[in-house]
Amino acid sequence: MNKQKLLAKALAGSKNLWFTEAVALAKAFGYRLARTKGSHHIFVHPKIKELINLQEVGGKAKPYQVRQLLDIVERYNLLLELGDES
What we know:
alpha+beta, Metal Transport, Frataxin, Chain A, globular, three-stranded antiparallel sheet, two-stranded antiparallel ribbon
């Protein structure tokens, strides 16, 4: 799924996002995986101090964590990195 469609899916309803899609979305906004401890996947951004924590439950991302990601994207006016659409 391309990054713009993934963002539209997340905005339409954070309960329907697969964990892998949430990770792809975080990476599309410039976040990178810093560490994993148990089920917690911690992502960092080079220009933002706020971390993003994503957890997988039954293959899906936790909805409140997807909303937190979207809130950070809006608060800092992050743009999708549209490079390779794989």
